[in-house]
Write a structure and sequence with these properties.
Blueprint (H helix, E strand, L loop, with lengths): L9 H22 L16 H15 L6 H18 L2 H9 L4 H4 L1 H8 L5 H11 L11 H14 L10 H6 L14 H15 L13 H17 L3 H8 L1 H5 L5 H17 L9 H6 L2 H26 L21 H8 L7 H5 L4 H6 L1 H15 L2 H14 L5 H20 L4
Length: about 425
Amino acid sequence: MDCDHGKWGTEDLVRRLGHALDIAEQSVERFAVNGYVDCGEPGNDFPPLKVIGETGLLLVNASIAASHPDIARRIHGVAERLLPHARSKRMLFGMCVDTTFALDYAAAHICLTRLGYRDPVFDAVLRKSLNSQVRAGHQRLPSEILEAEWLARTWRVTGLKSRQKYWPAVRESLLRHSMDLLSGSRFDVIEFTHALMYTTGFNVLRPQRLPRPVVGILAEAEAALARCLDEEDYDLGGEILMSWPLTGRSWSAAAVFGFRVLASVQDHAGFLPCAKTKLRRLEQLSGDKRVEYQLATGYHTTYVMGLLCASALRRGSAPPVRLPRRVQGTGTHAPILRLLDADLRRRRWRKEFDRLAVPERDAIASLLFAMALRRKVVERNFAGLSELLETGYRLGLANCPAAAQAAELLERVTEAAPRLLASR
């Protein structure tokens, strides 16, 4: 890996982005007509619209690195393959009938337009759909409204009637409200990451104003990253890691460690499995079925890694090679690590952790602490949670959102204890 002044090597970031574009070409070829249906695991199913729109998004973000000839060539190749699907009769009809979701159907078209592949007829139909009486006829999540706003801005269209605007949506999103870091669902983290992506405009467009200080948003991002690494959810972990380059802030030690884990897993396995991937099932498949299953369950995670590398390729945005550290190692991490190691299931992050020097391990002690807090809550081990909080306070690790939420949780449980423990 080459590096420049301690930054992650440009050549390696470009290589990973190029790999994502190669996977995009294969995904469009296999899934852009019929999507994917998994008879064994219906949760893996997805429609053609999903892979088509996500491929367009990847291409726009990859254009950040289009000064690299190999990336420019790959972008053009994927775009040419995507064009007939992005502007198919299915997409055109969808825009006409479901005008609330017109921008969803037109997402890949808009991204291709941004790259110079224009279609005035498709534009005209989209404009009429966005000016229809029922353009806001369905209730949408805040992140979906922000995505629609980003697509409209990317399209650079004028003459539209008023849409659902950015600021009301962002104030209802998890960028404005504290995310439940201990009991929240995976969907909550997705809402958080998507809201941040579209509010910052992926740094392809001018960022919009964030509803609270970046330091608070990134503190919650670190806790969410701890969850993703511990649950080996690299799909969502990659989205969380985009928080640092998208906000223009220096990578924290936890974020650098997270990037190293994802890069290591990708290099070792040849792909990044998402949380839904059943590796045991993958081993049972062979031939084309194995290739299709791995592509269907892993393409999105690879896209996310491509988006992350593209954002890191902007000037000054690459992660450091080594973890930032402010003090000499004193072993702060050790008590928390012993608690985590009491669970005999070996997580993949542990292998990368073992490569760190003591000062680097101490630099991510707060990440380990957030992992341990969530484990205790998931186990409903409130006595263990109380002991862990005391340890965190003693080690100076408790000044974080996850610890504050854990303390509040214990207060509520203590208040409710008499009735919870009553026989009736």
